[in-house]
Design brief:
The protein has about 425 residues and is an alpha/beta fold. Helix content is about 35%, strand content about 25%. It has 3 domains: about 5-135 and about 305-325, NAD(P)-binding Rossmann-like Domain (Rossmann fold, 3-Layer(aba) Sandwich); about 140-300, 2-Layer Sandwich (Dihydrodipicolinate Reductase, domain 2); about 345-425, 2-Layer Sandwich (Alpha-Beta Plaits), CATH 3.30.70.260. The longest helix is centred in the C-terminal third of the chain and has 20 residues, at about 305-325. The structure holds NADP nicotinamide-adenine-dinucleotide phosphate (NAP) and L-homoserine.
């Protein structure tokens, strides 16, 4: 057994914190052999010492006094698993300024304040590691920063929100509607009482901002990510997609081209043959295309106590090794370029459109004319007779410029023969 010890101070002892505690305890021998030192959790910050807990650490470890962690000479590195922006950011910056490397699972803090944290870390020669902040247990940040570093990454497409992937999978397999599956996801503990961060796409947007900044070496701010959630997706959309040989997924898409970067989160039809199409339930996956490696895909659990803690504990070991070798600060910021981000109107995709129209001669021709006048070319058209005076039309376009497509849709909406545009969903991955 090694005589060297790395003392950890952890902020938070909820789902992820408990998992980190368990892994560092249960796998202690192997971890010590791999790092070359014992890793001890010395202090854990919580809000409420009296709270009943499924795991009770040894006497004196839990504290409500942050200075026992961030200001204490005894603590070598700090793990932030409390979540939110404040006070997590204030405490993390304080730890870094006191020379303690930081490991965090906090996507909100990294997506919004990554630069500030890196600057503080660089000023005091510390590491900032955040593997768990994107796709929980899936290794993706370090593979991008290290194993794939020699590539020019062209494309990142990810299913990076487990809750919505579970919901879309259930809608697709059981024909259930959005509200039924949301209730189910809440009962199972996947979706929060306020599910907006997941179903409106904000959680995926934070993860995509982090992923694309690392993939393209250029910082992407959260407000540069276009976001659309899954609240408008219906069981009928999924059934039509199935008929056309597609599935519907909430995707985080980031593309890097000479004209700039595009970053967007939205539901999309994905061909059933695409490797991401068979990623179901709460699983996450990230598909990456590099100019040298070609296509690679990472798959696994994007959340949960032990999967997320696995990524945090791996980062703790990495930071501990750097401390032992006296090289903290080795893992620095890789956003050394400033690439422009394309406005959404300049991006191109194919579209799936469902609309209800008056069932009479010339209606389809009128719609096709507007698309044509806006340089939107159609690849397929299905017409269904739905009731006495009304028909449903389902269109799929070729790849078109977003701005042109939106102009066409605006004009089509104004046609007196168009009763309702039911769905407008992008398609990806053909
Ligand atoms: P959680 O279960 O709500 O636990 C939060 C912990 O932090 C609790 O122990 C709480 O103390 C403590 N805490 C919160 N605010 C505090 C404050 N102001 N002062 C002192 N202690 C405070 O959260 P979690 O699910 O473990 O998530 C932690 C982080 O991991 C978040 O950033 C989250 O986004 C990220 N993450 C979570 C998952 C997941 O599957 N859960 C996956 C990926 C990333 P008490 O125990 O006293 O209440
Ligand atoms: N709410 C997230 C999801 C997990 O459903 O994937 C935490 O990032």
């Amino acid at each position: 057994m090694s005589e060297r010890v790395i003392n950890v101070g952890m902020m938070g002892f909820g789902t992820v914190g408990r998992g980190v505690y368990r892994i560092l305890k249960d796998n202690r021998t192997g971890i010590e052999q791999k790092v070359g030192a014992r890793i001890d959790i010395k202090k854990i910050l919580v809000r409420d010492l009296a709270k009943s807990r499924s795991i009770v650490p040894e006497e004196g470890i839990l504290t409500t006094d942050i200075s026992n962690i961030v200001d204490s000479a005894e603590i070598d590195l700090v793990v932030e698993v409390m979540g939110g922006i404040n006070p997590a950011l204030e405490y993390s910056l304080r730890a870094l300024r006191h020379g303690k490397s930081l490991v965090t699972a906090n996507k909100d803090m990294i997506a919004l304040h990554g630069r500030e944290l890196y600057e503080a870390a660089e000023a005091s020669g510390c590491d900032v590691l955040f593997e768990a902040s994107v796709a929980g247990g899936i290794p993706i940040i370090r593979p991008l920063k290290e194993c794939l570093a020699a590539n020019r990454v062209e494309l990142v497409i990810g299913i990076i929100n487990g809750t919505t992937n579970y919901m879309l999978t259930r809608m697709s397999k059981e024909g259930l509607d959005f509200h039924e599956v949301l209730k189910e996801a809440q009962e199972l503990g996947y979706a929060e009482a306020d599910p907006s961060a997941d179903v409106e796409g904000f959680d995926a947007a934070r993860k995509l901002a982090i992923l694309s900044s690392i993939a393209f070496n250029s910082r992407i701010a959260l407000n540069q990510v276009y976001v659309e959630g899954i609240t408008g997706i219906t069981a009928e959309d999924i059934a039509y997609a199935d008929e056309l040989n597609y599935v519907i997924k909430l995707l985080g898409i980031a593309k890097n081209s000479a004209e700039g970067i595009e970053v967007r989160v939205h539901p999309a039809l994905l061909p059933k043959s695409h490797p991401l199409a068979s990623v179901n339930d709460v699983y996450n996956a990230i598909f990456i295309r590099g100019d040298a490696v070609g296509d690679v895909m990472f798959y696994g659990r994007g959340a949960g106590e032990l999967p997320t803690a696995s990524a945090v504990a791996g980062d703790v070991m990495n930071a501990a090794r750097n401390l032992l070798k006296n090289v903290p600060g080795m893992i620095s910021c890789t956003c050394f370029e400033e690439k422009p981000v394309k406005p959404m109107s300049a991006t191109s995709t194919k579209y799936f459109v469902r609309l209800n129209v008056a069932d009479k001669p010339g209606v389809l021709a009128g719609i096709a004319l507007i698309f044509g006048n806006n340089q939107v070319s159609l690849s397929s058209v299905l017409q269904r007779h739905t009731s006495g005076h009304s028909a449903e039309i389902v269109l799929v376009t070729h790849e078109v410029l977003e701005g042109n497509f939106q102009n066409a849709i605006k004009s089509i909406k104004e046609l007196p023969t168009v009763q309702q545009i039911t769905s407008v969903i992008r398609t990806e991955g053909d």
